Amino acid sequence: MNDKLTKILDEIRKLEHQLILELQKGEEEFFYSVKHKRVKFEREVKARHRQMAKRIRHYLKEAEILNILTAPVVWSCLFPAVFMDMVLSFYQAVCFPIYGIPKVNRKDYIVIDRHFLSYLNGLEKMNCVYCGYFNGLIGYVQEIAARTEQYWCPIKHARKTRFVHDRYSKFLDYGDGVSYRKNIESVRRAFDDLK
């Protein structure tokens, strides 16, 4: 395994963690707290937020016509997404224990909390629930796929890719058949960092 690649990916993970912490600093600035996965705003703030909510009829009246016309296309993706969610949850529930791969915790990826915002109307809240679910699902699916790839085919690509997942640093070099045969089983079991 390439130590330089491991160091770079570790540094990226640290920076991503710092980014998340920085993005979540809004608790103090916007007067809310999160307890037991519930978001609580101060009473006065919540009252001001309710005054900012746009009535649905005004929201639709001001919306771009193409946004309204394409909304059913956007929402049509929900059915395949829910199906993919069910299939992959079933897949990892059945296969991961057999392979010795730690399961991906779905709730770490799918976060639905924007509907607590009183300045959003019902349609905006519904859209935010959809986006939170869908984007969280993509992260959940990506992690299941990454762990599966580490088990079945932990070989780096020869060509550049736009994205590499967290597990990639454990993969074997492309073209190094000797290392592949010698280390495949240890790489398949290298999930200690997840425990």
Give a structural overview.
With 195 residues, the chain is mainly alpha-helical. It has one domain (3-194). The chain is built from 8 helices and 2 strands. Strands 1-2 form a two-stranded antiparallel ribbon. The protein is elongated and about 65 Å long. It starts with a helix and ends in a 7-residue tail after the last helix.
Task: Describe the structure concisely.
The protein is mainly alpha-helical. It has one domain.
Task: Estimate the mean pLDDT confidence.
Answer: 88
For the termini, the CA-CA separation is 21 Å
Number of separate helices: 8
Q: What is the CA-based Rg, rounded? A: 22 Å
Domain count = 1
User: What shape does the CA trace take?
Assistant: elongated
Major β-sheet profile: 2 strands, antiparallel
Q: Give the DSSP E fraction (strand runs of 2 or more residues).
A: under 5%
Q: Uncertain spans, ≥5 residues at pLDDT below 50?
A: none
Number of strands: 2
How much helix is in the residues?
55-70%
Structural class: mainly alpha
The main sheet orders its strands as 1-2
Order of H and E elements: HHEEHHHHHH
